Amino acid sequence: MQSETQNILQTINSPADLKKLEISQLPELCKEIREYMVDILSHNPGHLASSLGAVEFTVALHYVFNTPYDKIVWDVGHQAYAHKILTGRREEFATLRKFGGLSGFPSPAESEYDAFIAGHASNSISAALGMSVAASLKHEDRKVIAVIGDGAISGGLAFEGLNNAASDPNDLLIILNDNDMAIDHNVGSLNQYLVQITTSPKYNKLRYNMYMRMKKYGLIDEKHRGQILRFGNSLKSLISRQQNIFEGLNIRYFGPIDGHDTAYIIRVLRDIKEMKGPKLLHLKTVKGKGYSPAEKDAIVWHAPGKFNKDTGERIKPCPPDGIPLYQDVFGETLVELAEKNDSIIGITPAMPTGCSMTKMAERFPSRTFDVGIAEEHAVTFSGGLAKEGMLPYCNIYSTFMQRAFDEVIHDVAIQNLHVVFCLDRAGLVGEDGMTHHGSFDLAFMRCIPNMTISAPMNEQYLRHLMFTAQETPTGPFTIRYPRGRGHCKDWRCIPQKLAVGKGRMLREGKDIALISIGEIGNAALAAAEKAKETAGIEASLYDMIFLKPIDEEILHHVGKNFDKIITLEDGTISGGLGSAVAEFMTENGYKPRIRRIGIPDTFIPHGKPLELEKLCKTDTESICNAIMEECRK
């Protein structure tokens, strides 16, 4: 396909090559980029639909602006695949999200064209504003563009950036990629506003020309530009009988225009690129554009996995018989609990499908809330519900919970409110890489007073912990669990109430104590069996279940009976289980040698989970080697 139909694309190794093309050639180039993305992503899975919808304006941006001197900040970064292809990474695109290959998100370490990292949503306006102000302070004629899409405009940080952009002198250009989608459908009043908003291009041109003439004849100066802009906004609102939220913030607004008309986008960009002051170009796009299956079901095709590019049939991996995804166990268990407890509420920030909150939404729509890309709001909203006697199960991916740390402390923990935080995608998540690994939750939750922290070793214990969380009378309760499938065919057990702060012995031995929490306990158990077969080593293994409160009875037993300890966790070793065990042993006068196994104190790259586990030495073989090494000392 590439040699026969991608004749133009094969000549593009940089934006400089792109600028050599006639505008009339660009639609064909866009078609070839889409074909190339579909071809590669059909057998090397990634984020498909978002980048398909961003092709035309990506081409237009690189055609008009002088990148990498001019800066483009992408938000969210999974819509930047065409950007990668156009900026010297076409041949490497086949390595996307593979261990040692291209990142699935913009990465300044990977390319000078990637201005800022963007694995989480809503940071582009703030980051690009900082770059724009820096350029001004350094007297550089550098253009800075923030591309914000896939629902990221609804995030709180985006609003903070908009507010600041309106008040500080800058020439920032914001591209709003409005595809009426995030991962699932966009929610909230802002989305409805974007669907309805209209403006007059003739009016925008008239107002700008009037402003330039007044400036030319000395009737106004830059000092009073904001006053003229506000006057223009008021005049426009009077004529159209509609207030534009962006122009109400003193940000020049253009659009909405067709985000798939490359020639027209180029014309508009050329018209507005030299305008002074912050401005926003509103593009209406179709998520999944150009590939029929993705256009018809953009949610499924956001990240579809492998598929037959000709038929559109998704190639689903054959799961182990009867073993579900952890997220599905969560979703089904939540429904079971909600059927018996009317106070249970389900909350998710824009990830109902990913966390299987859709099951709750189908059964109890009035008790299920998708609050959009707004983790901070999700937490405080949960706190408000809990304050009035409801029991919110707030499901947030571990990596995204980092953004709501302040709200967990101030709006939940200080008041000791009964909110159940269900942290999906804990540990090493795989190909999404360092921005998405759930490395830090054990450590940052552990330092919060009143917080209960738990992690199931398998699906049955996820159900037990979800049941236990509703039985705990007060206080925030965290349950963190991994991405993917677990281990139990008989996961549909009857949920049992666990004793909070109590662990369990899984294996008894005399040579060394293994202390684990969560999913990694399965690898530890296999490693202990292998160490016995290989070297005759008898290891005890304790599944702590709870990090806080921690089982002091088990720790006293270990401190008294073992001089060698290995702690195991699929979180950072800085501040997590290993740190807790070491602190306990020191405070109680025990002096064992402690080896901590977990995610190292560094940012872990992307790759398959097994590859990353080997890199971090948290796989079964590495744990077995650690056991034997410690016992030889």
From TrEMBL:
Residues engaged in binding Mg(2+): 150, 179
Top-rank taxon: Bacteria
Needed cofactors: thiamine diphosphate; Mg(2+)
Amino-acid positions noted as binding thiamine diphosphate in the UniProt annotation, renumbered to this chain: 78, 119-121, 151-152, 179, 291, 375
Record's cofactor remark: Binds 1 thiamine pyrophosphate per subunit. Binds 1 Mg(2+) ion per subunit.
Positions of the Transketolase-like pyrimidine-binding domain: 324-489
Family annotation (SUPFAM superfamilies): Thiamin diphosphate-binding fold (THDP-binding) (SSF52518), TK C-terminal domain-like (SSF52922)
GO molecular function terms attached to this record: 1-deoxy-D-xylulose-5-phosphate synthase activity; magnesium ion binding; thiamine pyrophosphate binding
A Gene Ontology term for the protein's cellular component: cytosol
Top EC class of this enzyme: transferase
UniProt-listed GO biological process terms: isopentenyl diphosphate biosynthetic process, methylerythritol 4-phosphate pathway; terpenoid biosynthetic process; thiamine biosynthetic process
Keywords annotated in UniProt: Isoprene biosynthesis, Magnesium, Metal-binding, Thiamine biosynthesis, Thiamine pyrophosphate, Transferase
This protein's record includes keyword Magnesium: yes
Record family assignment: Belongs to the transketolase family. DXPS subfamily.
Its biological purpose: Catalyzes the acyloin condensation reaction between C atoms 2 and 3 of pyruvate and glyceraldehyde 3-phosphate to yield 1-deoxy-D-xylulose-5-phosphate (DXP).
Self-association and partners: Homodimer.
Protein name: 1-deoxy-D-xylulose-5-phosphate synthase
